[in-house]
Every structure is written in structure tokens, then in C-alpha cells.
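Recap slide: DUF4395 domain-containing protein, sequence and predicted structure.
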Amino acid sequence: MSRPAQIDPRGARFTASVTAVLLLVTVALGLVGGVASSLTARAVQPAFVLLALLAAVFVWSSAAGVARNPWSLLFRRLIRPRLAPPAELEDAAPPTFAQGVGAFVTLVGVALHLAGVPYGLVAAASAAFVAAFLNGVFGYCLGCQLYLLLVRAGLVRKAAAV
């Protein structure tokens, strides 16, 4: 049996911090952007474009693995070389699952916005922001905790991450 993929937990926190900032910007843009009447107008609003891009990053990260996230690549190339080696590595499966949760939440926001639900985008981006903020600032990953809960309940099989 192969060993599960391991990641530097500082990279996961960096990724969450960048994501939290971008989600906060999305929320602010969503609040000042108002509710557009036509589908075309909603699809070009800056908050929608940013949330759709973040959703794409979440989808990519959950499918390809957190080590291939654009912010993780930035961390590995620019920041990690300037730091001491990590005290310990962590299993990549829980953060990868958490990226899937982020993908789900942001895609719901994208769908609600396109459907014309007032502030659906803001609500979804706010929920994702809270999770990213908790991980980035306090190192508490809600999606990782959900993954562990589902593994313990036998609803998700613990497997090696990509």
C-alpha cells in the first residue's frame, strides 16, 4: 500500500489566507454590486466573475490535489524556500476534501447568483470566507474536520490523496 500524500501545513494555511482575502473582496463586491435584472448583467458583475474563478480553483484543487492549487504552487516556489523545514507534514486527503467542500459552496453561490437570488452569492462567499479565515488565521480547517467526521462515521473511505 502506498503512503498517503503529505503536505506542509503552512502551505495550507497560506492558501486559506489568500483564499480568505479573495472571498472577502468577493463579498464586498457583491454587497456594493446590487442585484442585476438580466442574466447577462449578472454574469459580468465583478463579484460573480471572482467567485466563479475561485470556484474553478476549488474544483481544480479538489480534483488534482491541494499541492497543485495555484496558491500552493506560489507558496512552494516563493515562500517555503525561505523557511525552515516544517516540523511535521500532514495528510493531504482532509485538505483536498475541504477544497471539494469549498467548490460545492462557491458553485452554489454561482448558481444562486445566476438564478437571480438576491445576495445568494454574498451568502455563499461569506460562508466560504468564514471557513477560509478560520483555517488561515487559526489553523482550524472546517472541511478537514468534516472529512474526519465522515471517515469515523464510515460514510467516506479514507484514501491516499493525489
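The chain has seven helices and two strands.
The chain has one domain: 6-82+89-152.
(End of recap.)
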